């Protein structure tokens, strides 16, 4: 999958480079209605979409100064989600993530976000990290807060999801 990223270990999760053999687990996770509702994944999500994610989306993050990580549950090494520094421009990074249904409500998502954020500040040159979360996505907003992100305001018509303009709440974390 290109240049290997460092393995980042949190309290509950391990972030690692994506591998080609992750495609079936990505496909399975992205069947989830909440991932389809709140992220920009294609709907319906087929096996070719998982392959596209690995072959195109992951390298795109790297090309924009970021890094895309697979999130594994430390307890059983299962795929718990995705956490990516989508881009890094002038020290400001945008993060995107999703949490597999089987990994929810156990603190794995917040640990992954905190682990990625610590790495971005210490090693990627970030001084500010941002999340764009739709106002109705209460679970993601709560996860962001548990990872230390602060809601800063509403950005009207900021997101385009499958051709539809949507509002987003800007959440941010600044370097310690």
What can you tell me about this protein's structure?
- The protein has 176 residues and is α+β, with helices and mostly antiparallel strands.
- The chain has a single domain, classed as Gcn5-related N-acetyltransferase (GNAT) (Aminopeptidase, 3-Layer(aba) Sandwich), CATH 3.40.630.30.
- Helices cover 31% and strands 35% of the residues.
- The chain contains 5 helices and 8 strands, in the order ββαααβββαβαββ.
- The chain has an 8-stranded mixed beta sheet, with helices on both faces.
- Strand 3 and strand 4 form a beta hairpin.
- Helix 1 packs across helix 3.
- The longest helix has 17 residues.
Blueprint of the fold:
Elements: E1 8-9, E2 13-16, H1 23-29, H2 33-38, H3 47-63, E3 67-73, E4 79-89, E5 92-99, H4 108-123, E6 128-133, H5 138-146, E7 150-161, E8 164-174
CATH superfamily, by name, is Gcn5-related N-acetyltransferase (GNAT)
How would you sum up the major sheet?
8 strands, mixed
Please tally the β strands and state the result: 8
Going across the major beta sheet, what is the strand order?
1-2-3-4-5-6-8-7
Structural class: alpha+beta
Beta content: 25-35%
Mean pLDDT: 95
> What is the radius of gyration computed over CA atoms, rounded to a whole number of angstroms?
15 Å
Detail the poorly predicted runs: none
The total count of helices amounts to 5
Quote the CATH topology. Answer: Aminopeptidase
């Amino acid at each position: 999958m290109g240049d290997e990223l460092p393995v980042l270990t949190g309290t509950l999760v391990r972030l690692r480079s994506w591998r080609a053999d992750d495609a079936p687990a990505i496909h399975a996770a992205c069947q989830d209605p909440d991932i389809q509702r709140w992220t920009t994944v294609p709907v319906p999500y087929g096996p070719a979409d998982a392959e596209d994610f690995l072959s195109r989306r992951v390298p795109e993050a790297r090309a924009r100064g970021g890094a895309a990580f697979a999130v594994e549950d430390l307890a059983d090494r299962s795929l718990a989600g995705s956490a990516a520094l989508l881009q890094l421009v002038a020290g400001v990074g945008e993060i995107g993530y999703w949490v597999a249904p089987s990994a929810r409500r156990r603190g794995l998502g917040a640990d992954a976000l905190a682990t990625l954020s610590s790495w971005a500040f210490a090693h990627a040159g970030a001084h500010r990290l941002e999340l764009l979360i739709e106002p109705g996505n209460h679970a993601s907003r709560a996860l962001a807060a548990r990872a230390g992100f602060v809601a800063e305001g509403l950005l009207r018509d900021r997101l385009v999801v499958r051709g539809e303009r949507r509002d987003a709440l800007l959440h941010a974390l600044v370097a310690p």
